[in-house]
Amino acid sequence: MLTGNAQAATIADPSTLVVDTVGPVLTIGLNRPKKRNALNDGLMAALKDCLTDIPDQIRAVVIHGIGDHFSAGLDLSELRERDATEGLVHSQTWHRVFDKIQYCRVPVIAALKGAVIGGGLELACAAHIRVAEASAYYALPEGSRGIFVGGGGSVRLPRLIGVARMADMMLTGRVYSAAEGVVHGFSQYLIENGSAYDKALELGNRVAQNAPLTNFAVLQALPMIAEANPQTGLLMESLMATVAQSDQEAKTRIRAFLDHKTAKVRPS
Ligand code: 1HE
């Protein structure tokens, strides 16, 4: 039986997000700058609602932080009140919210700056692309707070940076800079301060131009293929490739290339 605290987790607080539409991109700003965008129950419920009802015309999502930081992670003032049962419910609630990012219909890009800590890092890990400005830094202070990651971090982060690096972060409190982060897989992009949002928007507009089936294959099939045993993975790949190339959109795009009507692939 859930107690009052666990049930309260489902009440969304819309003021904790700033949501906007920029062309085909939905932008979601974490909006608790005075609390360094710490993730409280109201924000998590609002994020879930926002990701559940993505309008049809949206082709990409950008998640960013309002203020100087992406997110300081779990709102520790709420943690104080939970017992074990509520803690389990809370963790699984976070899993469901971050699953909505990972399994979103459209690519999700996280624009990172300042603190990307604990649950904030877990949120970023669920996105498909991470863009970090030079100010971004990554930490998992759960170890020193006597807790453990609970938002899918132990599943997603080792796949990006490795178990040993994550264990070191949790055991010793090691903090990685944005420059180190791009080398070790925390982010795919490293850019100058003040430009993470614009870069994420640019990438959002870029991925919005892809064939929807390509984005579907990359978001839904690729991660499962990568986790499957090789024989299963190869079969899944063949099936996905066959479905994608039989789509009219693919035929149109390949025809355009053969007719010299599309840009060539050049070094950037
Ligand atoms: C918070 C939180 C928070 C800030 N929960 N209130 N996360 C952490 O352990 C990170 C804790 N936060 C920090 O280390 C620092 O706040 C920052 C490095 C992120 C920013 O420092 P600074 O000097 O810019 O700000 P500040 O003065 O420390 O914080 C401003 C306010 O935000 C202050 O509240 P105020 O009422 O005194 O103004 C802080 O208490 C508040 N604040 N971070 C609650 N996290 C699913 S499991 C996931 C587990 C985790 O995420 S553990 C990691 C938690």
What does this structure look like?
Keywords: Lyase. It holds the Pfam family ECH_1. Its EC number is 4.2.1.55. Belongs to the enoyl-CoA hydratase/isomerase family. This is 3-hydroxybutyryl-CoA dehydratase. There is one protein chain. By secondary structure, this protein is α/β, with parallel strands linked by helices. The protein folds into two domains: 4-208, 2-enoyl-CoA Hydratase, Chain A, domain 1; 212-258, Lyase 2-enoyl-coa Hydratase, Chain  A, domain 2, CATH 1.10.12.10. Helices cover 50% and strands 15% of the residues. It has helices spanning 4-8, 41-52, 76-79, 84-102, 119-126, 142-145, 153-161, 163-172, 178-184, 196-208, 212-227, 230-246, 248-258, and strands at residues 17-22, 25-30, 60-65, 108-112, 115-117, 129-133, 137-139, 176-177, 189-191. The strands form two sheets. A six-stranded mixed β-sheet has the order 1-2-3-4-6-9, sandwiched between helices. It has a three-stranded mixed β-sheet with strand order 5-7-8. Strand 2 (25-30), helix 2 (41-52) and strand 3 (60-65) form a beta-alpha-beta unit. Helix 5 crosses helix 7. It is globular. Residues 35-36, 38, 69, 72-77, 94, 115, 117-119, 141-142, 145, 147, 149-151 line the site of 3-methylmercaptopropionate-CoA (MMPA-CoA).
